[in-house]
Amino acid sequence: MFSQTLDDAGSKYNTGNEQYTAKAYADAVTSYESALEICKKVGPDGDVLKLNIQKQLNNAYYKNGLTLYKGKNFDEAIAQLEKSAKLAEKLGDTEKQQKSTMYVGKIHTTSGQVLLKKDKPDMAIEEFIKALKINPKDYKTYLGLALAYKDKGDLHSMLQNADKTISLTEGKAKAAKYSDKAKKLAATELFNTGALEIKNDPAQAVIHLTHSLDYTEPSANTYYYLSIANNSLKNYNDAIENSNKALELKEGDKSDIYFQLGQAQEGSGDTAAACDSYKKVTSGNNVESAKYKIDVEFKCR
Hints:
By secondary structure, this protein is an all-alpha fold. The protein folds into two domains: 1-136, Serine Threonine Protein Phosphatase 5, Tetratricopeptide repeat (Alpha Horseshoe), CATH 1.25.40; 217-301, Serine Threonine Protein Phosphatase 5, Tetratricopeptide repeat, CATH 1.25.40. It is built from 15 helices and no strands. Helix 3 (47-70) runs parallel beside helix 5 (94-117) and helix 5 runs parallel beside helix 7. The longest helix has 24 residues, at 47-70. The model has no long low-confidence stretch (mean pLDDT 96).
């Protein structure tokens, strides 16, 4: 009876090997699992065959998991790779255990990225957090988190994860593009937030606009908006400095910047300098205001 049962197990095992060779990994998993169940019923007489089956089943779980991952069947892929990791641990196959576990983390990251594209940031965050529990130094995952928090309008959390991305990619040439993406994301969100805050909260606007410069090269626009915010706060010396930096960087028409410079100079009590700046406002929405300052208010020469 045992001999026949072992023959059945051996037959299932051989079928599994044929399926594995043909890269029909899902079918191979089914065959190996059936063979393993038979061996368990046999008892000690099936131990040698049982070990061989377990080794091949481990390989089949792993290969099937990767195949499912490539097909974007993420949940099923994770289930197969977790089985591979568990069986590999039992067999003492540390390398396979680590590789299987690493891929589980990678799949969670990919799943999060897909969810982001579907405008599901909360679900994406859940996937990214699962990934980081496995691969805590994966900069791609931190960048994904930064993007998810950006979508949620959470500037603080976005910056935390962008900073982590930048830190983990430091000195890694192959990871430079992820660092660049994180810096661009942080700079853009800080700039946009600061620009929107100028009217109602200029002090916070100054903080965010200034912080944006930590992530990118100085720009005329950033210094121009800083000059507006500082003028609103009556920080005229800062506004003058901001305007002058904007003028250095600006290409083309500079009328708007000169108007802010004039406002700052006027506020600081330097009427003569303000007149010179207002005279350089030759286009845009501030022409009439500048003309009034020149002709009526200050009677500039």
